[in-house]
Amino acid sequence: MWNEEVRAKLQLYFIMGSTNCTEDPEKVLFQAISGGISMFQFREKGTDALTGSEKKNLARKLQQLCKDHGIPFIINDDIELALALNADGVHIGQDDEDAGAVRKILGEGKIVGVSAHTLAEVEKAIEDGADYIGAGPIYPTRTKTDAKPVKGTSLLEEVRNCGILIPIVGIGGITAENARAVIEAGADGVSVITSISLAEDVYKSAAALKKSVS
Ligand code: TZP
Ligand code: MG
User: Fold this and answer.
1) Cys bridge to 38: 11, 50, 146, 154, which one at CB 3.0-4.6 A?
2) Does Transferase show up as a keyword for this record (predicted)?
């Protein structure tokens, strides 16, 4: 049986690192939480990304905010950091270790998410024991420079048409205007970076996204 708690938490999954904001990341996350995000991923990547103790200190602060508001705190890629902070889970890509290996290291009760771009990658992630899939990029994005080709909602439809029920979140270029189509294609939620992190009004943007996926 799939973890229905995880499925519910995917509804509005905000992803952010310091390089995705122009404002103080803690302030951005607080406003996003107020606007109604349901899960958070700390993704500290790209040029100028923090490393070492700076990365860890920011992660700790964001984790505390999540804890205070009952939001699961997931870390992108960095298993060592996830262990050190006892994070709620880890999200990995196709170039990282497989979900089974990650779960073994993290221990039971943690959430393991995997990015997938094809049906075969979804099936492999399920075999490896992933809790959820991040499928995309759905729409054009400027946030991930090495993103795979845009898929629209076709992968979501393909996966659901095969009767695959794993919790799935769409990613890539998602806004309040196009989020509904992602849900209608079969996703349980949407994950977004810049349409929240760089919004003029973070609270309002998160609230608008929440409304379109509810
Ligand atoms: N993986 C596929 S697209 C993407 C990632 C991490 C970036 C999504 O960022 P945005 O700003 O929501 O398009
Ligand atoms: Mg990775």
Assistant:
1) 11
2) yes
CA-141 nearest atom, ligand 1: 13
Q: How far is the CA of 192 from the centre of ligand 1 (A)?
A: 6
> Which residue in the list 45, 60, 144, 211 is annotated as catalytic?
144
Residue 115 is which amino acid? S
- CB 3 within 8 Å of CB 180: no
Q: In one letter, which amino acid is 150? A: V
- Which residue range forms the structural domain that includes residue 156? 4-213
Alpha helices in the chain (DSSP H): 4-9, 25-35, 52-68, 79-85, 99-106, 119-128, 154-161, 179-184, 194-197, 202-213
Per-residue pLDDT tens for 128-145?
A: 999 999 999 999 999 988
Closest CA to 159 of 122, 106, 115: 122
Residue 191 designated active-site: no
Q: Domains in the chain: how many in total?
A: 1
Q: Which residues pair with 15 in a beta bridge?
A: 41
- pLDDT of 171 reads 98
pLDDT tens digits, residue range 18-71?
A: 999 999 999 999 999 999 999 999 999 998 999 999 999 999 999 999 999 999
Alpha-carbon gap, residue 116 to 92, rounded angstroms: 10
Axis crossing angle, helix 25-35 with helix 52-68, rounded to the nearest 10: 20
Q: Are 161 and 168 in contact (CB under 8 A)?
A: no
